[in-house]
Amino acid sequence: MVSTPASSPFARASALLKSGAPATFTSSDSVLVSSSQATPILLSLLIVATSYLAWQLFAPVKNARIKGSSIRTLAASIPRLGQVAFYRTRESFLYRVLGRPEGALDAQAYHPSAVRFNVSQHNIIVSGDHQDASTFFNTRALSFTKGYSVLFGGTPKDPDTEPEVAARNRAQDDKYMVFFDKNLKQAIRGERLADLTPDMVEDCLKDYEHFFANNTGNGKLDPHMDVYPLIFQLSVRTVGLAEHANSAAAAREMYDAYWSIERETNYWSTLWPNLPLRSNHKRKENSKKLFTMIHEAINKRIEDKRSEDDQVQRMIDDETSTIDIVRWCVGSLFAAVVNSSSMSAWLLIFVGAQPELRQRVKQEIVETLRKGAEERGDDYESLPTLEALRRVPLEQWEGTASSVADRKNGGGAFPLLHACLKETMRHVLRGTFFRYFAGQNESDKFANSKVQIGGHDVNSGDFLAYWIAGTHQNSRIYRDPQRFDPDRFAIRKEGNGPLEFIGWGASHHVCGGRRFAQLEIIIVVATFLMCFDYETVDLQGKPYSAETCPSADTDNNWRGPSKPVRLSYRRAADFKA
Ligand code: HEM
Q1: What is the ipTM of this complex?
Q2: Which residues approach ligand 1 with their CB closer than 6 A?
Q3: Neighbour order of strands in the sheet with 566-571
């Protein structure tokens, strides 16, 4: 059950509504309407407004209960608001209603049978049962696009072109999705990534150099505040405009607008975006700023008859409409930044909390660089660190090949680092994936399809959510799931069964940016380890251990730490300028 405190945004909104009404009639209008006449008018307006509000809040939600279904239904204290906690404190809400997957070996502790509830006028079935994963990922009748566009609310819409985009029909929408995927594939195709890789290494090193310069090579950094801007810059370089990637000031301005939008994404901005709330206003303001920056930069490039080496240029050359190019850039940035930023920061945090593991990862990187140098005929000892890293070829970063001999033995480069990334994803990705089942409401080929969750029919018009922790924190799949232990992947091969690791999604909607995401995170972390020796500490500098290390607060997109965390660093003894 959810109760709304008096200071809730809704209470503030209705207060605003009420306080706004008299002001409309008391200034120049007083000449036309005397105060004794105004009182009954005001009173009537107030009654109308209050009745409207009450109707909005307490009106029954369509299909909130399904007769004959044994899927548990959760009722909300204010029906139209529904389960606000699903947005505000998702993780604890799901633990409360579905149980603890870490205790899955104990049948009493984990009973993940699906639950159904509403948020605003939308009904959602949430399942954390690994048995339902296959239905969720493999059923074509479930719409990924509608699931996210209604329930996720992260990606902003351009306030100026929204009506035009909204007026497009489903066929036009599908066409846009094909355009989106095609351009993302081109933006991160192998030959482009191979060209970008040395620049990405250089971006990282330049960024880390300011820690050398600011201090004497020692200090404490905040992994979220200091790593997120770097990931943003790498993302802009890959799916944004060269003009922005090459200007620190422009990249920073975009970064501030981007994160302000992410931080203001909540229940209200997702489901009641037109309420006059501060967060809705800030989101719209920053969305406009972001769209305008990209729009103006494209126009300027066209006006100046300049050409740049980025995906946007390809679209300009193909005479794509500027609205679609801007929409593609913003959509790609919102798909790219949030997960890659938090995975990079958390990988550094988790590895830094286990000195022995950090040493093993560092050793793996040095050995790979040394071997690569020897194979190329370079003298590793005299190579500056930047050059040793810049010369690592794409396939080695990707872990797909190290040397011919290793490939024959089935080995690849950086296996432990890749296992650390996978383990970080397993820890940090604990939210939900979304889908929508149109069923009979659809006029297309899926109109007669049936979908079952937990053995029960899903209603046409219901949304589905799959709880990732039901798989990633499940003790039937992962031994001691709360422990950060990359050897579960590197050595013990846990999570190798079907849909046991879903960090990149699965089936029809596997992550479209995986190749780039993996590459940038591995580069950011490997470069960091080549620059610094470090450990994960609290604000007083006391080292955290595997047992005491904070975890990610997954209730917001920033994914900050459950308690303060810093990386205490010093220039690596083997760093070569
Ligand atoms: C560590 C970073 C990342 C993680 C963990 C991640 C994870 C995921 C997951 C789990 C999905 C599937 C969601 C579902 O089935 O509901 C997904 C989809 C997607 N991701 Fe990523 N992602 C990451 C980075 C990126 C980047 C950098 C890009 C773009 C450059 C990107 C673009 C996309 C796109 C376009 C889709 C939708 C695919 C479709 O519609 O079929 N992702 N991602």
Answers
A1: 0.99
A2: 144, 184, 239, 332, 335-336, 339-340, 343, 425, 433, 503-505, 509, 511-513, 516-517
A3: 218-221, 566-571, 532-537
